[in-house]
């Protein structure tokens, strides 16, 4: 994934390092995982190999709506309903 490059360029072009960011792995499958962090924190998680493709990248204040709009969470089994906060 090139999300670390994307994050670096977004920061270089004026977005603050603490801009909310979400990565959704394996969206709409029973393996779906949502990773919430910032432009600065999530790229470190990517480099560490904790987040794998396929993943959808979401940037900005809309990330704060993830709990309210978690339409898929109810369709998941408890073992697969994962949400990870990666603020560091």
Automatic annotation (TrEMBL):
Keyword Signal: no
Pathway(s) the chain acts in: Cofactor biosynthesis; adenosylcobalamin biosynthesis
This protein's UniProt keywords: Porphyrin biosynthesis
Cytoplasm keyword on record: no
Cross-referenced PANTHER family: S-ADENOSYL-L-METHIONINE-DEPENDENT UROPORPHYRINOGEN III METHYLTRANSFERASE, CHLOROPLASTIC, SIROHEME SYNTHASE-RELATED
Protein name: Siroheme synthase
